[in-house]
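Fill in residues.
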């Protein structure tokens, strides 16, 4: 009986069928990256707001004031007398009633200047010139409540983390396409609820759920794409990252054209419902079907792939070799039980963590400080585009391991140099820091591909999801690490980033090369990679094994 890779080669390793599925599933990267970075626009700080004095609303209504007139009467005098107060986080500790004059409300307090009137911290009752421009103005996430915006992003990352564990496990047990479609439905529904959440608690709950389902769509579509192509075509795992970057580039345009944060939220959520149409055009992964002892269904899908690719399978392909490995529900112990699996798992977990922490740290450092928010964010996305193209032109020539290691090491060196460059040459600091970001972006994209290539089919989705969950942990830690260390010394975070990146670069050299090798189907296949350490890109696994699917 032929192996799966033999059947796939005859059906077409990257024909018209795979190209269509690849293009359709790649659109998930656009919606996922928009969700990932949406807080930049959903959480924009309001330009003009102030704390309303008790009774001011009634007085404003009685006097017929506009918002600008109310502010001029109640806030500007406070700022004139007390330069340190702008009326945003504190207010006059007074209460107005109907006896106050509309023409000069402060005259009610006699000859006392505004600077002599008592002040108090504002806890609620803020007024915004654009009340629905962002979640900040919608839920009063200003002043003492500003930390809640950071909480909302941490909750989203926690959702990503939960999705990596739960939906990664579910995809290995119940199927790739089923979990992908359910996740798309979940992202769309939760996104709508987030847009119309009546309070911040509901907003947080469904933002967590949207993050969980969002991670399910992204990780599952990635695994499906890499499992339906041949070993020489798994570069599609890098190409799909371009669509993630496209989402980053498109997002500022969506935000610019959307008058409210609800419109932005709906624009990045509703497209997920369109992905439900994939039920009729994207099949279940035949590799996964074979691991669940469903050879007939897998062979039927292979015949369909061959037909769409303009090929025909040989008549003797009536059955495909099924793995002799016992099919069981995956667990973390399966990833660390054997030496090679344990080495790969621990190194990949660290690589995900370091890449995410450094990437987000550099984005925040080079991020938007004044200027045009939309243009700056667009440019920051364009900077990432060369990463995928550099990988494409090198990874099939020199392999995975060397670009993976060098990108981390170059990122570390760039961070170190940036830390000690003088402040009077900002263009050079920005250039070197940008090189660091480009390098860590390359590392971030390679780890996706390497992760999927180093796990057997029975554990691939669970393994990729589990290891990538460390990415979400790095994303949670990054802002706290950056701002706490920067308070000690502005360049100290770069020193930490440098150490993390260089260590990661050295560790990934211990991983086996996977260039040109069929995807492993069993744990035994992964363990055999150790015998080809350093030569994996030049030597195929023994053909006498019957462990292919």
């Amino acid at each position: 009986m032929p192996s799966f890779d033999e059947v796939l080669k005859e059906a077409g390793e990257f024909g018209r069928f795979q190209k269509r599925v690849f293009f359709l599933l790649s659109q998930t990267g656009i919606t996922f990256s928009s969700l990932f970075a949406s807080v930049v626009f959903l959480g924009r700080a309001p330009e003009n707001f102030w704390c309303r004095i008790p009774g001011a609303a009634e007085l404003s209504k009685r006097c017929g004031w506009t918002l600008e007139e109310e502010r001029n009467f109640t806030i500007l005098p406070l700022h004139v007398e007390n330069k340190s107060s702008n009326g945003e986080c504190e207010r006059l500790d007074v209460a107005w009633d109907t006896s106050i004059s509309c023409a000069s409300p402060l005259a009610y307090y006699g000859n006392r200047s505004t600077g002599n009137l008592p002040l108090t911290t504002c806890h609620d009752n803020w007024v915004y010139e654009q009340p629905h421009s962002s979640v900040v103005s919608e839920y009063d996430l200003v002043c003492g409540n500003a930390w809640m915006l950071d909480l909302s992003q941490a909750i989203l990352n926690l959702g990503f983390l939960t999705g990596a564990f739960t939906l990664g496990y579910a995809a290995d047990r119940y199927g790739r396409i089923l979990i992908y479609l359910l996740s798309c439905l979940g992202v769309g529904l939760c996104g709508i609820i987030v847009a119309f959440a009546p309070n911040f608690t509901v907003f947080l709950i469904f933002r967590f759920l949207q993050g969980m389902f969002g991670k399910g769509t992204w990780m599952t579509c990635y695994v499906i794409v890499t499992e339906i192509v041949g070993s020489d075509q798994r570069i599609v795992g890098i190409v799909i990252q371009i669509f993630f970057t496209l989402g980053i580039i498109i997002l500022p345009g969506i935000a610019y054209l959307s008058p409210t944060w609800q419109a932005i939220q709906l624009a990045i959520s509703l497209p997920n419902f369109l992905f439900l149409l994939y039920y009729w055009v994207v099949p279940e992964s035949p590799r996964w079907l074979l691991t669940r002892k469903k050879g007939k269904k897998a062979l039927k899908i292979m015949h369909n792939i061959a037909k769409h690719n303009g090929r025909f399978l040989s008549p003797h392909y009536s059955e495909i070799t099924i793995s002799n490995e016992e099919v069981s529900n995956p667990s973390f112990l399966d990833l660390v039980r054997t030496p090679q699996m344990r080495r790969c798992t621990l190194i990949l977990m660290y690589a995900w963590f370091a890449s995410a922490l450094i990437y987000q740290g550099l984005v925040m450092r080079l991020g938007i400080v004044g200027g045009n928010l939309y243009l700056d964010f667009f440019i920051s996305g364009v900077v990432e585009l060369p990463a995928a193209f550099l990988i494409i032109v090198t990874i099939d020539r020199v392999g995975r391991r060397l670009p993976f290691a060098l990108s981390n090491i170059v990122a570390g060196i760039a961070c170190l140099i940036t830390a000690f460059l003088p402040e009077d040459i900002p263009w050079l600091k920005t250039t070197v820091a940008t090189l660091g970001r480009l390098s860590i972006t390359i590392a971030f994209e390679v780890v996706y591909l390497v992760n999927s290539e180093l796990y057997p089919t029975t554990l691939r989705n669970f393994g990729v999801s589990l290891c990538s969950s460390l990415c979400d942990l790095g994303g949670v830690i990054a802002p706290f690490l950056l701002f706490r260390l920067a308070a000690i010394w502005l360049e100290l975070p770069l020193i930490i980033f440098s150490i993390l990146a260089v260590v990661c670069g050295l560790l990934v050299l211990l991983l086996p090369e996977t260039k040109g090798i069929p995807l492993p189907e069993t744990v035994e296949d992964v363990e055999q990679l150790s015998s080809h350490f350093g030569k994996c890109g030049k030597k195929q696994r023994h053909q006498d094994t019957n462990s292919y699917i």
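Confidence is low (pLDDT under 50) at residues 531-549.
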